[in-house]
Structure of Imidazolonepropionase:
Amino acid sequence: MKRQLILLSLTLGMYTARAQETISPAAPQNKPVYLTNATIHVGNGQVIENGTIAFSNGKITAVGSNIAAAGGDATVLDMKGQHVYPGIIAPESNLGLVEFESVRATIDAREVGEINPSVRSIIAYNADSKVINTLRSNGILLAQVTPEGGIISGASSVVQLDAWNWEDAAYKTDNALHFFMPPLAPLGGGRGAVPNDRLKAALEQIETVRTFFREAKAYQQEGKHTATNLKFESMRKLFNREQKLFIHCDLVKEMLVAIDFAKEFQLDVVIVGGADSWLIADILKQNNIPVVLAQPHALPVMQDDDVDQPYKTAAQLQKAGVLFCLSNEGFWQQRNLGFEAGTASAYGLTKEEALSAVTLNAAKILGIDKTTGSLETGKDANIAVSTGDILDMKSSVITRAFIQGREINLDNKQKQLYEKYEKKYGLK
């Protein structure tokens, strides 16, 4: 009986293994590649018709309309009728930290305790997550892996989505510390009055964080410590401005508190969420505070707001000159990020401004714009090729994608299941 159980377990294991797609990371680029005759969307607003982009050793070497493909062993790919874009960047994601939201053992996004600046999300990142491949199929090639839980949740890192492990995936480590501000409004939403006891508790929590920051800053200024404080030590990059402070909040009063933090501690602050940011766009501009707009497909904050307010907030920030990018909640929803940028383009942004909101703007906010975010000479060859508009769900089909010059596999579990049942029911 025992032998039979072992054989049964092995058999089931074989079928389980076959049920999962096997996608290995691509090998490093070993010869120059030219994508020719394409419509190239640079990411900074520029569009090159019938253009060529060349890249070698993972770096873009030329972009333009009069570039001759070199001979030798170079690979020349004719992209006639197709569009070439910078890879989309997904800020604020728990991708690779959560696999099944209903299974606790697959959730590595939260740590015990309220103030955990020493937590590093990158070391918990699962490069083998089956969700990652579904993002790549829609042209999303980088993501900011963000911890959650507590008030100070820890440090996020930017990863590229074609890696053997978290060390390979790391693109920019510990780029930001995350402060989840207690809400200063009713749990049900709205800008109305807050019960005194809950408002008092929220204000006390904010003051606790402020005190922690003051103590950490004083610790940094000490010449010699009698004892090492790991939480204070982990704040060093923040006060040196090597790291940004991402403050998660939505309402005006909360964002004003965030601006006070930036002023008092001389920090690079980014607002995450920013549902009401359109109301104080001028103040955000004056204080040079960028915004990561979360979940553009959402209901307005107040009943008397325009029903399409979340869709047009991006255009209002653009008009005010506020640096912003778009994000989404969770991990699997990130695959729709480009299409949500498309919605913003229907509510006031131009197509190229909407593209920048998920490419170059995101790179600037995450501190990686010197290496990615646009198709410019010297930057990493993070490139997506589509048969149509990458911001349009109906026309976009990603045919090729490159991360640091490596052409990646665009297969995923959903595609395999589609093909499987397409054959079963004779739909092909």
The mean pLDDT is 90. Residues 50 and 198 are 59 Å apart (CA to CA). The chain is about 30% helix and 20% strand. Residues 196-221 form the longest helix (26 residues).
